[in-house]
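Hello, quick one for you while I still have it in my head. A protein chain has come my way and I'm curious about its shape. I'm sending you its amino acid sequence along with the backbone structure tokens. I'd be grateful if you could look everything over and explain what you see. Here's the protein in full, and shout if anything looks odd to you:
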Amino acid sequence: MRTASFLYGVTLVAALFGPATMVSADEATLAAGAGFRRPLAEVATAYEKASGDKILQIYGHMGQVIAQARESGQIALVCGDQSVLKDAKGVTFERFARLGQGKLVVAYRKGITLAKAEDIAGEMIKRVGTPDQANAIYGKAGQQFLERAKLMDKIAPKLVKVSTVPQVTSYIISGEVDAGFINATDAIGADANIGGFVEVGPDLYDPVDVSCGAVAGKPSKAAEGFVAFLTTPAARNILVRYGL
């Protein structure tokens, strides 16, 4: 079964992206956690250029994303923490395509430097941004870090809660918070707009396996093609560059 699946993926990639094949254009809607917007938008652009298909995109925190997938009936692909996708109520996935391992980081504003994630407990850090701890992957991961590192009591009064990772990043860039919990993907994308970032030890939060799930009953050439494209070197190079 695994061999058959692999051969199907290779055949589909070859059919879509082979130079001698002409296929009609199609479109599919992808919804994803906001913290993965940069790499997924870049991968979608590369796929569109290679295939002629269109990937419509929606980003938000996972609670919103899953609700839209359940209620709209228009979303073919949902990307985020695979454990969250598997537990999603009212949405069934036919299969998953793994994007990579998500990494929790503490990013900080210009003008300060942190040597390690635990330094957010220092006096220079007055405000710490965090995504929604109920629905956002990295909000949950940040909470796990604080609990496992025994820093919750010190950091809780400093927390500034927002909905998504990009909002935390925006607050760090503007200086509204001194530091915040985001993923390596968004930190890499922010680049010189922030002071820098330090990774949180992987033993201090649950693993984040980032995947795209194909929604059952929503087959389309564009959705199938995008999933197959995720296995290509062109897509992998983008994802690896963003820390996945």
In short: Residues 2-17 form the longest helix (16 residues).
